Amino acid sequence: MEVVQVLHMNGGVGETSYAKNSLLQQKVITMTKPITEDAITKLYCSKYPDEIAIADLGCSSGPNTFFLVSELLKVVDSVRQKIGKKSPEYQVFLNDLPGNDFNTIFRSLSDFQNKLRKQLGPGNGPCFFTGVPGSFYGRLFRKNSLHFVHSSYSLHWLSQVPQGLESNKRNIYMASTSPPDVLKAYYVQFQKNFSLFLKCRSEELVDGGRMVLTLIGRRSDDPSSKECCYFWELLAIALSDMLVEGLIEEEKLNSFNIPMYTPSPAEVKYEVVKEGSFNIDRLEVTEVNWNAYQDETDLSDAFKDGGYNVAKCIRAVAEPLLASHFGEGILDEVFRRYREIISDRVSKEKNEFVNVTVSLIKA
């Protein structure tokens, strides 16, 4: 499986699209907003630049893409007005893999820019947008050209499925039954990828440039702990049941593994220190309920079903990976089963995603 070709969120604005099923990711951006605001404020106040280049890596498509950008610009505009500075000009780079739905992003760009101008009022500098398709595990921008880099819920994705997972049969990810060599293979791939990411961004950021990165992670030292792998284990149950019933092939299931790693704060810190290009300003851990609609009110009957909500969220993320490996014919059935499994579990226990957020300064 060529991850660069098939890893992308569901495009468009349909019922299974990421745009319609990314409330959880928006809640994480909101939850980590104090860290992001602190970083962009410190960046601006350090030099009061006439222009600010911002890159959102793993921008996907839908409302979250522009939500993050508007929040950053509003913070800078508020600070510059208080101190009587002229507004900087902004260059915003929206990056994701080539399969991302950039068309939907740019179709809605004009409406967003009009809304942003009304929110910020007169005197705000122009904001220019550029789409940048490509993997962030390589260089994307000119040297010393960026001031601020943001990435939320993207860096836990790996550039490839780790090598040496043949013994991970019927597990589609790290699991409690995965052999030690499988856990090591995942960790080694994360180390390679994260170190390369830091190296590339250090070349692209100006001196004193800032990054805020949020990944799905874990508090536990155990990489196969329930807090980071459980939602994939439940999907593996649905696939295994379909295997027993002859709906999918055993070879297909045994060769399917999710290209993702959920690090602990200690693992993130270790890689940052080892690579050496950045100083850590803040490193924090938060949690968010699997069911993004848990605390919402005035919901339709469908959205009151936690299994329905979680299954739709995971489908918007994982469907392209499953479709490329098993074919599109299994999708409705596997996620029907997954919804039933999730509904049973969330009715009995509280499940949360653990988020690891790190704020970095280029040394």
UniProtKB/TrEMBL annotation:
<dbReference type="InterPro" id="IPR029063">
    <property type="entry name" value="SAM-dependent_MTases_sf"/>
</dbReference>
<keyword id="KW-0489">Methyltransferase</keyword>
<keyword id="KW-0460">Magnesium</keyword>
<dbReference type="InterPro" id="IPR042086">
    <property type="entry name" value="MeTrfase_capping"/>
</dbReference>
<keyword id="KW-0808">Transferase</keyword>
<dbReference type="Pfam" id="PF03492">
    <property type="entry name" value="Methyltransf_7"/>
</dbReference>
<dbReference type="GO" id="GO:0008757">
    <property type="term" value="F:S-adenosylmethionine-dependent methyltransferase activity"/>
</dbReference>
<keyword id="KW-0479">Metal-binding</keyword>
<protein>
    <submittedName>
        <fullName>S-adenosyl-L-methionine:benzoic acid/salicylic acid carboxyl methyltransferase 2</fullName>
    </submittedName>
</protein>
<dbReference type="InterPro" id="IPR005299">
    <property type="entry name" value="MeTrfase_7"/>
</dbReference>
<dbReference type="GO" id="GO:0032259">
    <property type="term" value="P:methylation"/>
</dbReference>
<dbReference type="GO" id="GO:0046872">
    <property type="term" value="F:metal ion binding"/>
</dbReference>
